[in-house]
User: What shape does this take?
Amino acid sequence: MQDTLSVGYTSAPPFIVENDSSLSGINVWLWKKVADDLDLNYRLVPMAFSDMLDSLESGGVDVSINPLTITSKRSKVMEFTHSFYASNSTIAVAERSSYQKLLSYLKGFFNQNFLKGLLVLLLIIFLFGLIGWYFERKEDQQFRKGYRGIWDGVWWSAVTLTTVGYGDKTPKTRMGKIAALVLMFGGLLFISGLTASIASSLTVTQLNSNPDGFHAFKERSIGTIKNSSSNSFLNEHFFKDIQLFEAVVPGLNQLRDGEIEAFMYDEPIMKYRIQEDSTLAKLQLLPVRFDVQFYAFGLAKHNTALEQMVSQRILEIMETQEWQLVLNEYGLTEL
Assistant: This one.
C-alpha cells in the first residue's frame, strides 16, 4: 500500500459538497473518519466524474470517495467497499403552468378520433332529421314545410338522440315513429361508444402529459450523467433520446430552460440540488423510483487489503448513532 493515497472526488451534494476551498458532505465526513481511525495518509484530487472512473480503473487514483453505485460491470475493473447507503433513481421535470395544462387537455379532447366521432354524430342527426321531416312534413302542427321544416327535423333528431326529450316535437305517422325508435336505440349505443372513446383519449393524454410512470418517457428527450448507473439503466431499457452531462447542475439547467423534457439520476443528489438552488425552484421530482442502488467507495483493482480495512471500519461506523445524525443533518434516511 502506498504511503500517501490519491483520493479522487467530484462534487455530488449532499455526499460531497464544495464550499469555496473547503469540502463537506456525508462521504467527506465518512472518509475522514475512516482515514483517521486507520491512520491513512492521503491527498484529495478533484476530477470530473467520468475521468475519475477511468483513472480508478487504470490505477491513476487509489480511492474514489464519491457515492459510486456497485454494478457488475464496475466490479470487473475496480474494488468496492461495503455499501454505506442505499438509494434509487428518480425523474425530475419542469412544473407546467395552468395554461400548458389547459392546452394539453384541449389537445387530448379534440383529437382525431373525437373529431371523426363528432362528424358521424352530426351526420346521424342530420340524416334522421331529414327522414323525420320527410314523414312528418304534412303535419303542419310540428314540422313546417320547406327548409324551415328540415331545421325542425334536425332539432327533433338532436333532442331525441341526446335523450333530452323536450317533447315539443314528436312524430305522428307510423314511419316517423319507426324512424324515432331506430334513432333512440341506435343513438344510445353510438353515444355510449363515443363517450367511452373520449374518456379513453383523455386518460391516455393525461398519462402522457402528467407521467407517473418510468416508461412514459421512452420517446422523450432525457438527460442523465455520463458513465453513471442511471445511464446504463436507461440504455438497457431502450430509451432512445438520451443527452449525457458531466454534472447534475448543467443537466437540471437545461431541463429548466426546456431543452430537455426530463432528467433522470440519483434521487438524493437531485433533491439536494433543487432545494439549495433557487434558480431550479420550478423543477420537481416525480413520485417514481427505479434502479435501486447501493453506494460505496471505489478502490483500484486488487487493492484488497485496503478494501477490507476500510469496509470493516465503515460497518463499525454505520452501527453508531453518530452516523444517523450525519444522515439526518443532510436530510437523508435509510431506505
Remarks:
- Confidence is low (pLDDT under 50) at residues 207-211.
- The chain has twelve helices and twelve strands.
- The longest helix spans residues 174-209.
- The two ends are 35 Å apart (CA to CA).
